[in-house]
Amino acid sequence: MGETTGTDVRRAAVQVDGETAGYLTAGQDGPAVLLLHGTYWSRVWLPVLSHLAEAGLRPFAVDFPGMGRSGGELTLETATVPALAEWTARFVSALKIPGPIALAGHDIGGAVAQHLLAHDQLEISRLALVNSVTYDSWPAPHVARLLDREASAPTTGDEFLAARRQAVTTDLAGAATEQVIAEYLEPWADPRGRRSWLAMAGAAESRYTLDLVPALQRSTTPKSLIWGEDDAFEKVEYAEKFALEIPRTTLIRVPEASHIPTENSPGLIARALADFFTT
What we know:
Strand content: 15-25%
Distance between the termini: 33 Å
Structural class: alpha/beta
Largest sheet: 9 strands, mixed
Radius of gyration: 17 Å
Shape: globular
Oligomer: single chain
Order of helices and strands: EEEEHEHEHEHHHHHHHEHEHH
Strand order of the largest sheet: 1-2-3-5-4-6-7-8-9
């Protein structure tokens, strides 16, 4: 992707901890919406950014260190959910985004979003989770094996890219064209990007979301779950449980969509997010 990625969508950067933090944004004014990714990168939010801006919002889809277009590199220590939450708070501070802020998270980014809310690390007006990790839904089996550092060490660049190609093809479902797959894989051509991904995978532990449940059950912040029904790992049953147990939570099911539903039903998800964040 170039610096300009679509209608009114542009890439920008800010310095966080002495490194470049890249992000996608759209619009000029309006309430801020922070969008967090997980084991992919800010590309997961690209299909909805223009729609959010048209609704009067100003979205910021950031890349975590070492991922997407951001500098730096994640380690097992800096890739934990608490560490990523602290980094996210510093990113928001660097951008001088005034609170309160609307927050959305996908995959492990959803765990970071839940942590930020549960620990009051940001002034959050509303929380949306899109096929997020919750409870003990994670790590997925193909990620869990990477918890063994020795098992992941022999992975070559070609082996890594082949494995990620298979994963993204599954997660994109009907949206898996060669061009879109190539865009998702692009950051992992850099060894630094591959190492950062392995660090995030290695730091994946369900205790980080399980420990948040009591605080989330006390939370009065409005929450919306938007879920691709065909996700084989972050199953919709977890979203149903969350909606039943966590107060002020609604669930929108997205049919014929898998783990990256923003690619399968961008219009539906953009409208759902915009309606939720502007209500």
